[in-house]
Amino acid sequence: MDIYKFAIRPLLFNVVKTDSEWLHQQTIRSFNLLSQTPASWVNQRLKHSLCLYDSRLEQNLFGLNFPNPVGLAAGFDKDGVAAGIWSNLGFGFAELGTVTFHAQPGNPRPRLFRLPLDKAALNRMGFNNRGAAAMAALLAQQKQKLTQSIPIGINLGKSKVTPLETAAQDYLDSFRLLKDLGDYFVVNVSSPNTPGLRSLQDASMLSAILDLLRQENTTQKPIFVKIAPDLEWEAIADIITLAKTYQLAGIIATNTTIRRDGLKTQVIDQTGKSPQDEAGGISGEPLRDCSTEVIRFIWQQTQGQIPIIGVGGIFSPEDAWEKITAGASLIQVYTGWIYEGPLMVRRILAGLLSKLEQSGLNSINEAVGLQAKIQKF
Question: Active site includes 354?
Answer without folding.
Answer: no
